[in-house]
Write a structure and sequence with these properties.
alpha+beta
Length: 492
């Protein structure tokens, strides 16, 4: 009997001791989490047009749980560039580890340091959100804090329904699941928002406009944060967007995304971003596989971090980022230039990896890759400095004549004399296609391969090769200037 009592009492005593110890560490755990969150938010806010900061207002410690309040300050800019500030409050109930009751009831038996349950607090600035949520809390969340410093949790927003004299906006309930591990060097996030439906009236003429977004998603999978930069992909996706202005045909956008990725290699830090749209359709006309993909490669992380930090300091030197940039000093400008030159010394690559789209009868593609280097010491003029910074350049372009014809037909349809006469529309589209092709071939920028206009431009070692023809830089500048004059693009 004594052995049975000991078998029960010892584990209970250990759990009790662990709970008591955890209760003494709860406040420091919460404050550390706020500090780490502010660091991440600070890094994400550079260039984003918004700043977010969190601070703890109060902490009331208990044996099994504690209560805390946080203030979230958000600063953005309105359409005129003027700063706008918002403040929201969060209430947090923190269950102490190692075995919070809420986790045990869900069958989660892994011990944790604490389990946070937070929710938005009703205030003057959040009153509209609470009214739109119809009795529910607009934003709630849970976070489990591991003994190793990891965090795992979820945010949940309620369904919202806004109504005023301009119309209605309905937002479906959304979720965001996240995980921070390995002492904040790994961040994973996955969010979903099923639908946003807006029925509004235009303020200029009072005509109705409906905008419906479906299948909004967000993913982040970053690891190995070093010097403020992490490796891995992130993306924002949209399955469908429908814009219905008045009684006009709807514009439908399908499978749109913004995809970002970063990685490290022996040559440095690489980052890419791509904007993609699977299809844009209106009035029976479609553009498909629209892509704009950009990348920076071979970046020196130390120089990049120094440049970003200097930029942050400049933004913090005034009341608003725009004011700081408008009043940038010569010293600040020289520092930015010096740090930018340090980046160039590492010979980075700037690339337009792809710009293109497709119509029913053709496709267009363009890519440009530029290898950079530090400017020559002999370059004293801006033009000479820019040329000396370019180590090499490769550009490839291709346009199907069928695509030119489709675009010309789409433009001509807007004219009454063509929209009502299919034969005249076809004739005008053919004429525009041949005129465009003739100008492109006559200027020497393109060659004809079958039914496709193609162009290839390479530069290296002070030599330019255009469509297989070699020339010096001076000869190429003369050719380019002459073709522009010949096309009448500079007027008289």
């Amino acid at each position: 009997m004594k052995k049975l009592v000991l078998a029960v009492a010892v584990p209970l005593a250990l759990v009790g001791a662990a709970t008591l110890y955890t209760s003494t560490q709860a406040e420091s755990t919460a404050r550390d989490a706020v500090e780490q969150a502010n660091i991440q938010l600070r890094e994400m806010s550079v260039g984003a047009g918004a700043e977010v900061a969190i601070k703890m207002l109060s902490f009331e410690s208990g044996l099994l749980s504690s209560n805390a309040r946080y203030q979230v300050d958000i600063e953005t800019q309105d359409t005129d560039g003027e700063p706008r500030q918002f403040t929201v409050l969060l209430q947090d109930r923190i269950e102490h580890g190692p075995f919070p009751v809420s986790r045990l009831t869900r069958g989660q038996l892994m011990p944790v340091a604490a389990q946070s349950h937070f929710r938005l607090e009703r205030s003057a600035q959040t009153e509209a959100l609470f009214e739109a949520a119809a009795g529910e809390n607009p934003l709630v969340g849970d976070v489990a804090f591991g003994y190793d410093g990891s965090q795992q949790g979820a945010l949940r927003s309620a369904s919202l329904n806004f109504e005023n004299e301009d119309g209605t906006v309905r937002v479906a309930a959304g979720t965001v699941n996240f995980e921070v591990a390995d002492e904040t060097t790994t961040v994973r996030l996955e969010g979903q928002l099923p639908e946003i439906d807006m029925n509004l009236q235009r303020r200029d003429d009072g005509k109705p406009v409906r905008v419906k977004l479906s299948g909004i998603g967000m993913t982040v999978d970053k690891h190995d944060y070093v010097k403020g930069f992490g490796q891995g992909p992130s993306a924002i996706t949209l399955e469908r967007m429908e814009i219905q202005p008045d009684d006009n045909p709807a514009v439908v956008i399908k499978n749109a995304s913004i995809e970002e990725a970063s990685s490290r290699s022996g040559d440095g830090f690489d980052q890419s971003i791509a904007y993609r749209v699977g299809e844009v359709g209106a009035n029976g006309q479609f553009i498909r596989n629209l892509t704009l993909a950009l990348s920076l490669r071979n970046l020196d992380e130390g120089s990049l971090k120094a440049l970003v930090e200097s930029y942050k300091q400049i933004l913090d030197s005034a009341a608003t980022p725009q004011e700081a940039l408008d009043n940038i000093t010569d010293v600040q400008q020289q520092e930015l230039q010096a740090l930018a030159l340090q980046l160039l010394e590492h010979k980075p690559t700037v690339a337009l990896d792809e710009f293109g789209f497709e119509t029913a009868n053709g496709a267009a593609r363009l890519s440009v890759v530029a290898d950079l280097q530090g400017p020559s010491a002999e370059a004293f003029t801006p033009d000479a400095m820019i040329i000396s910074m370019l180590a090499s350049l490769r550009a490839e372009a291709g346009i199907d004549k069928g695509l030119v014809r489709d675009v010309a037909s789409l433009i001509a349809q807007r004219e009454p004399q063509y929209s009502a006469d299919p034969a005249a529309l076809q004739q005008q589209a053919d004429l525009t296609t041949e005129l465009f092709s003739g100008m492109a071939l006559g200027a020497g920028w393109f060659q004809l391969q079958g039914d496709r206009l193609v162009s290839s431009l390479h530069y290296a070692d002070n030599k330019v090769t255009l469509n297989g023809q070699d020339m010096t830089v001076q000869e190429f500048i003369g050719f380019a200037f002459g073709s522009v004059l010949g096309a009448g693009l500079l007027g008289q």
